[in-house]
Amino acid sequence: MSDRPAMPQGLECYRSIGPFTPDNLPAGLLREHRLAAGVWGRLRVTRGKVSFCWDDGGRARVDLSSGDELAVPPQRPHHLVLDEAADLLLEIAFHKAPETKAPVRLRE
Hints:
- The chain has no helices and 7 strands.
- The protein has a single domain (about 10-95), classed as Sandwich (Jelly Rolls).
- The chain is about 0% helix and about 40% strand.
- By secondary structure, it is an all-beta fold.
- The protein has a 4-stranded antiparallel sheet with strand order 1-7-2-5, with no helix packed on it.
């Protein structure tokens, strides 16, 4: 798997969280976790630096700094590492496929 996966086209943002600093970053983001099936994340670093670690197989580490974004696929284990994070500011947006409604059948 790629260390920098591409988010599929056509997904819609349905929720965002943050901005987070080292003082208010949820502790769960520093432990291994996964996104739900069908949900993609987009991590955006707006200030400072953070390391993103994939927890599958090779445990690849991606260093992100101000202006960087990283797409996170569903169900792939990962966590963040705060190295030089004193001035960190990041946000996370969650994306999924648009809801499609079943066609309405009229009674005849």
